[in-house]
Amino acid sequence: MFTIYEILNGRFTRRVISSTEEFCLKSMTHLMVHAVAEDIICIINSFSNKCFLISKKDWHGCGTYPTDFSKFIEKPAKPSEEIDLPEERIRLSNNSVSFVIVPSYDCNLRCKYCYQQCNPELSREKITDDNLCSILSTIERYHLTHPEKYISIELFGGEPLLPENRDVIIRIFDFCVNNRFPVGITTNGVNLPFYLKDLVIYSGLNIQINTTIDSIAANECTRTGKNSEVDPHSSRILKAIRTLIHYGITVNVEMNIDQHNIDQLEDMIDFYRRNEYLASPLFNLGIARIDDRRFETGYDKMVTDTQLIAKLTEIKFDEPNIYFSFVKSMLALCRKIYPDFRQQELKYISNYCWASAPVDNVFYIDPDLDVYRCTFTVGRKQYSLFKFSTGAIENYTSPNRTYQEYPQCVECAIGGYCAGGCKLSSDVDFERMCSTEAADFMDFLNTLFYPEIRKKLSTQEIVF
Fold first, then answer.
1. pTM for this structure?
2. Residue 44 CB coordination number (10 Å)
């Protein structure tokens, strides 16, 4: 019999290993084993999502242990389907379907980091009346046959709120009024003033605006127009946001962090605090980071997950309406070590991201009726799942992409969390994706995770 301490919600939870029966651990290549004190070892099993402390005297690597220790150190026979989120959040997702309509792929900006607009094969034609009618009628038929489902309509692009798309937008709004569907809009925000009157008129649709402001400083330099910079202080967008909130419309502002603005992050959060945006229950502030999933934008000012997490650990904020949306491989460990980690991504532990998991029902539909699963694939015809129709929706099976996709990942100690990494990156250069993901993961462990455990050991008493 011996004791271990499982790491959960920022605390060490005592577990007594006492089974009289035994099993033999034949391999430990799937385990991450690290000394965090002179006589204490930290063990991470990414495949079973277990992380715990054990005394050096009780750990002897491969060999015989009590049977009830097996769930901590053996590799499971199949990938974990654990979801580390409240049951209510999971239940709501299972009963919901989001249809995301792309009116066109055209955009009024040419942001330097944009993963979509750099695609030379991207068509920017506006959706036809016939195709829009087909989309709306298909959604309506689905709603009639699935009255138990909570259906929402979202708009995506390109940039959906281009002035030339107004007739399409109003038609979709009217459709949502007739069917009592809520509406979400992902927009760069530049044309929010143009659509302000329409959004207020249709505010009863429970509209949610998702927009981006990367900096409120004068040196905003990544979000640019086709020919010039656009509103470097984002003053027009901020003014429109105030009006939207006043009329009861929820606004989510996301900041895309890179080398240009990571040191402004605390000032930006304080800006929204001082100006009372964060005091509103209708306002949410998201923190993401810029990435290059297919290694094609050529953007060279990115920061890593670890660098951004490190910056966030330095900043003090209590507001519940600040959230994160960038961590992938390290997410389960962040939730273990930081009691109030703000990312609520819905996926199995053994999935890299929500798009590779079978738990969120989201269909991106473009002007050609091509349907996509992942935000980063929208507009890339090689990733189209099917042409949008009732039958195709009914026959579609959501993905469940795990480490079993690649033999290398089955034998890799971080495989249970990394799960093969981003499929888009893997398709282009698996070795580059793998080495980058592994390097960032180990950097996270060595610079943040293990030091945080040592810090907690100095404040939480444990007795083996």
1. 0.94
2. 25
